[in-house]
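ok so I'm stuck.
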Amino acid sequence: MSATYQKLLQQWASLAADECLKTDHCHKFKVRILPSVEKRNSPNAWRLVTSDNIAWRLANDQSIVLVQLNFVLLTVMHHCAVKHSNISFTFALQGTTTVICNGLRSQPHPHPAIAALDTYIQLLEF
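replied:
not stuck anymore, here's the structure
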């Protein structure tokens, strides 16, 4: 799961450099904080998001990972709303899938944020 999430974050950073930047470490990324997603004093605020050991941290109830994933999920949902792109979620035993614009579909992923990011990358590539 960490490798998939890292790959998606790398794609996001390369497709939308104004939204997400790669830091000096290959597993850390900076995501721009949007005022409608999270309040910050600075208009240039960024949140550090990491994919390092995400599966282990989720399995061991590390709340910081859930906060990061929820932030990514809210950010993707906000970007979809700005682009007037609807996003829907389907929850199943295999994982969560998302659909954007009634055509772009993610693979099943263990967390809705990863599924949403998967589909959002497809929207950016469009």
